[in-house]
Automatic annotation (TrEMBL):
CDD domains: AAA, REC. Keywords: ATP-binding, Nucleotide-binding, Phosphoprotein, Transcription, Transcription regulation. Residues 3-117 form the Response regulatory domain. One of its GO terms (molecular function) is ATP binding. The modification 4-aspartylphosphate is found at residue 52. SUPFAM superfamilies: CheY-like (SSF52172), P-loop containing nucleoside triphosphate hydrolases (SSF52540). Residues 137-366 form the Sigma-54 factor interaction domain. This is Sigma-54-dependent Fis family transcriptional regulator.
Length: 478
């Protein structure tokens, strides 16, 4: 018998939902806040969770990663009294089944609930999924686990996959992981570096050419698309493809046929396409730099790799992975890692993402020489200086913001309720200091922007998803 969990602090809503579920002869539990929900899902299993967003002790959306990680994870139907377009975006990205805004009809709720139950039942009957081979992919954060779900989905099909993410975030690693788990795993994985292709050689490189077809063509050459036959063609930095070749590539994707330069007959190639880019292709389409019809072909399955600064829970396991690998490579005993080492790495924003982290760890490894433990002193001075300066600036800002106002001094916005931490009292833990500083910054940001999210994004330099994650973390309304 299906089991439903109702999460809502409004007793009338809870009773209405309970009445609906009882009429359908299903079991249910009802809770009122985030803490009670966490306690309940530790011991009970549910098919569907009816989840409110604004709860007495936090935001219901914060529960989505935890619900997603449960064995036989329940489907989630959001039922909120305050519709929020950006909140809806975050919810759908978090994998919710439906997003309903109160007041909505009982019929609409019942329809959504029953569809979610049907989907959940079919998913259960689908049997156990093949275990993913995640060799070399390290991470345990909710954000990266969501990526693993997409990897599993992409590996089970031959559909085109578009991987997006900042430089150094691991796009090619994820592309190879999808390939390794697909039915084409033992076939070629051909990489095309689109950023290095010149207008004059791009067609010859992709499609190949016949001897004598142009000056310098002293022999036949097989193109990369033909080499990828039966395997994967990986277009790295696809956003760098010249417009002149985008139309030709579109036809190849549609027909899987092309003509080498100078040839009279077409060649076929049965390849699976995976593309990657650190650019915003939607924005490029709007500016005329990228063809919209090609973009549609590329992103049948989209996979976004979040930057390392948005999944700092992964820094520690990544550290241990890279350090252990370095110890193995150089044939030295495994090194320990000091707490101060982790603290510095967590305080840094990692603009170069995982690639930069790997490079920094190798520098620290070399600097440690025969030491058995890595400490903060082994990290590159430039990195330690950046982190220390940022901490000092945050502390000074906190002292200025918390100082009494005087004539000519800037006033603290009235909407700000928390002062940034100062260092003239008992020294807090680094974690507490950082949390207080972040909360103070966000409240002042919200006050000065008047709750205008686009303005907050412009002033802070944060991505939309990162800003909303922080606002939820500190329960700041805008």
């Amino acid at each position: 018998m299906p089991r439903i969990l109702i999460v809502d602090d409004d007793p009338e809503i809870r009773e209405t939902m309970a009445s609906l579920i009882r009429r359908q002869k299903m079991e249910y539990d009802a809770v009122t806040d985030v803490a009670e929900t966490r306690d309940r899902i530790k011991t009970e299993t549910y098919d569907v969770v009816l989840l409110d967003v604004r709860l007495p002790d936090g935001n219901g959306l914060d529960l989505l990663p935890e619900l997603k990680q449960l064995p036989n994870a329940p489907e989630v139907v959001i039922l909120t009294g305050r519709g929020d377009p950006d909140g809806a975006e975050l919810a759908i990205q978090g994998g919710v089944w439906d997003y309903l805004v109160k007041p909505c009809s009982i019929k609409q709720i019942s329809l959504s609930l029953n569809r979610a139950l049907k989907y959940h039942s079919q998913k259960e009957k689908g049997g156990d999924l093949k275990a993913l081979d995640l060799s070399g992919v390290v991470g345990q954060s909710p954000a990266i686990r969501t990526c693993f779900d997409t990897v599993a989905q992409a590996a089970s099909t031959d559909s085109s996959l578009l991987i997006t993410g900042e430089t150094g975030s691991g796009k090619e690693l994820f592309a190879r992981t999808v390939h390794a788990n697909s039915r084409r795993a033992d076939k070629p994985f051909v990489v095309v570096d689109c950023a290095s292709l010149t207008d004059t050689l791009v067609e010859s490189t992709l499609f190949g050419h016949k001897k004598g077809s142009f000056t310098g063509a002293v022999a036949d050459r097989t193109g990369l698309i033909e080499l990828a036959d039966t395997g994967v063609l990986f277009l790295d930095e696809v956003g760098e493809l010249p417009l002149t070749i985008q139309k030709s590539l579109l036809r190849v994707l549609q027909e899987r046929r092309f003509r080498p330069v100078g040839a009279t007959r077409e060649v076929t190639s049965d390849f699976r396409l995976i593309s990657a880019t650190n650019r915003d292709l939607d924005a490029m389409v709007e500016s005329g730099e990228f063809r919209s019809d090609l973009l549609y072909r590329l992103k049948t399955i989209p996979l976004h790799i979040p930057p390392l600064r948005e999944r700092k829970e992964d820094i520690k396991p990544l550290d241990m992975h890279f350090v252990n690998r370095l110890c193995d490579r150089y044939g030295v005993p495994l090194k320990g890692i000091g707490a101060d080492f982790f603290e510095i790495l967590h305080a840094y924003d990692w603009p170069g993402n995982v690639r930069e982290l790997a490079n920094i760890l190798e520098q620290a490894f070399v600097a440690s020489d025969r030491d058995k433990t890595l400490y903060a002193m082994h990290l590159p001075p430039a990195l330690r200086i950046k982190v220390t300066k940022a901490q000092i600036m945050t502390a000074q800002s906190g002292i200025e913001d918390s100082a009494p106002e005087h004539e000519g001094a800037p006033a603290i916005p009235s909407g700000m309720t928390r002062a940034a931490p100062a260092l003239n009292g008992p020294l807090p833990t680094f974690k507490d200091f950082k949390a207080d500083a972040e909360a103070a910054y966000l409240e002042r940001l919200a006050a000065e922007a008047g709750g205008d999210v686009p303005l907050m994004l412009e002033h802070s330099g944060l991505s939309r998803s990162h800003l909303y994650a922080l606002l939820k973390k500190y329960s700041i309304d805008v």
